[in-house]
Amino acid sequence: MPVPLTLVTAPAVEPITLEDAKRHLRIDDADEDGHILTLITAARTWAENFTRRAFITQTWDLVLDGFPVEFHVPRPPLQSVTAAAFTYNLAGVATQVATSVYAVDTDSEPGR
Fold this sequence. Notes:
alpha+beta
């Protein structure tokens, strides 16, 4: 079953620079810079999806049908949890969970 993840903040950088890619491709001019940048992003995205890992820091929303006692967070490695919330009213208003109520394990792989 697919995990209900939504990308909130994409990586700010890519694993390799445009300059590194151009040096590898032996390209000196700037004519293909946009295309090369697109290919770098596409390659990272494909590799992250294939390995089910995040290579660069990014923010994801994870939505679950219930609030389990413990669960593994997909797309390791987990660096931190920004917030935990639950919704149970008809208006769909989220109730924030205090950080003192839950623990985050970033040492496990995947995190939990």
